[in-house]
Amino acid sequence: MENMVDKKNTCIQNFILYSQAWVEVKKQNRCIIFLFPWNLIFIFPIICRYIIRIDDLQMETGLWMNIQCAFPDNNKSSRIIVTTTNDKLAQICSLNCRVLRMQPLDMGSAHALLERELPVVHRCPTNLNQSLEMILKSCECHPLAIVNMACHIRETGNRWEWDHDKCEQACNGIGSGLVNGTGAFVGMSQVLNRTYSSVNYNTMTCLLSLSTYPKNHVIKRKSLIRRWLAERLITCKDKRSGEDILNECFTNLVEHNFIIPVKISISGEVKAFRVHQMMLQFIKAKANSENFVTWIHIHEGQEKEQVNNICRLYIHNSSPKDPSIGNKTELSRVRSLTFSGLASKTLMNFKDFKLLRVLDLECCENLKNANLDTICRSSMLKYISIRGNEGVSKLPPSIVKLQYLETLDIRETKVDILAMEVIKLPQLAHLFGEFQIPSELSNLETLFTNNISNLHTLVGFCIDESPAVVKLLPLMLKLMKVKILCRQTTPRSEVIEEDLLLSLKSCFQRKLSAPNLSLGSLCIDFSDVRDLDFLHRLEEPSFLHSLKLRGKFSEKSRGLPRFILLSDNLKELHLSGTNLGCSVLSLIQGLQNLQFLKLTEDISITEAGEIICECGWFVSLKRLCFDVPVLPKIVIREKAMESLKSLQLFCIVLGGFSGITHLLHLEELVLPSNVTGPEADDLALQVSRHPMRPKFDRPLGDPGRSIGSKRMLTRKNGFQTLKLGKTS
């Protein structure tokens, strides 16, 4: 009798929760219709096997909780399928199953869909394939975009002949339709406007700023955030730093699928990305309507009309002659300038840019030293990037006038000597390049003992040609990230190595009190120039959370330096060309907080035998990457690497990998497609039997590449993602 009462109460509770969930879902009109007698509603979730699909769920976690309670686990293989564009919500809904990401159509299916939606009368008899390909590239093979574009072409009727030029015009001129929801793009407009309106004001502002980049341009995340900081793009209303808020905004852009990650670091962070072409059209139209960005494209023989009230300016120059953007164009209020195309001394006369804060000259064509002569006339500059311009070999001496400069990026240029005066700039926080700083120690000691330096990031100084800087590392009290290089042209100096050891010891022992900051990221890149044996004399524990070592340890000093094993805060470790191989796993398995590990070895290193990962190894490890020529057999015991989510096996020869099913949280396994044989087949079989059904990615392999070369993961995402939530 008591069981009957309990069952009745459970049915009533389920009915109440089900009714609440049904009302909320019905309001959204995002649920399929269930056909069953109403008098079975009390016992339906208990005795019946069910499948429910909720499409395009937004941030309504209360609705999801009600659905979960109304449809509990009944051990009948029931399913609840949820689609959403929000990654964070997908993680909430997924619980004990994997999140599935919807991909765009393949080119064949996209081509077939476009031809089906497009009547023959609208097809151009000439250049048909080129026109269709242009449309598909513009839509990036997304079904809704293809259907809307075909509808847009159909609406024109026979009023104009669909030639290649008008096809290009149609692809490039849909921004206003996407924003206003007019014409054929009502469907795409609803999706984009709803997603755009769902984010906060700061995230909207950051999204609009991406309209300054051309289509298919790959944008680097960290450079972008430093640029946002320099421009003071967002408002800080709480006690958090601007960098924290901007990182949160960037995370929102990723979670809402506004951008496509292109390069993923070993830590799982997005290193570089691009904007969806449809989304770029949308935000450009938004930015234009709000006067957020001004675009000026200069072609040969073109006269540009007067433009006023410019805050953010993007200039693309295609004219080989020395063009002008007009004498009456008001430039004094420009705060951000992005330049691309052919360098021009006339266009790069910065004397009129009185309030300029951000100057981006990355990867210009034919940029020379002379083009930078007037760069220092904009005294308010906070951010300068001339990255990727090999024609630049030196900076103008007057750069010392930029007293507000915070970021200077000279990577991938020929600038190999940096004047001491640059280090003296009082606000300089981030310095990037590959340079030497020839200076007397006494000249720099005065600077740092007076606590003038604001350097947070010092990436790329050469140890042999900058002995004074090595000794001054402990005096850079705000230094958080440093990268030390070694050139191949200089002889070995034990004195400098000893100075480096003493400096690192002092940095590790630095007292963490204002204004001091801890050294959190260290990269030592000696490549094949010399060994890293001297690091064995460094035995002090550190506060490092990221460590990257590139260089060999000799056979006499096998093993890792003691300071690594004592770094309890270490979260990311990258060992490249150390000559230690995969056997290093047994040495570092006890690092309790290690989350990301990448092991890279040279082609000359081969390994045999078997590595057994025992119970309790790598308790916090989430991502593990091997980039080696020959991967020895690895055995995963039960309760080893319990937190591992991503396993990447870049190798030429696979020695075998067993125990995949013991990795209970595994979400993806990467193995190049050129790795074949019984070991690869066995690995695929283990993945298919895994309870989490992890993604088995087989990217194209490159058998001829040099093992140990820089490698990033590539990922393509669609506008919308499919999330699977399983209740039983």
TrEMBL record:
Keywords: Membrane, Plant defense, Repeat, Transmembrane, Transmembrane helix. The chain crosses the membrane at residues 32-52. GO terms for molecular function: ADP binding. GO terms for biological process: defense response to other organism. SUPFAM superfamilies: L domain-like, P-loop containing nucleoside triphosphate hydrolases. Residues 334-671 form the Disease resistance R13L4/SHOC-2-like LRR domain. The keyword rRNA processing does not apply. This is NB-ARC domain-containing protein. Gene3D superfamilies: Ribonuclease Inhibitor, Winged helix-like DNA-binding domain superfamily/Winged helix DNA-binding domain. Signal peptide: none annotated. Residues 213-283 form the Disease resistance protein winged helix domain. Residues 49-116 form the NB-ARC domain. The lineage of its organism: Eukaryota, Viridiplantae, Streptophyta, Embryophyta, Tracheophyta. It comes from the Eukaryota.
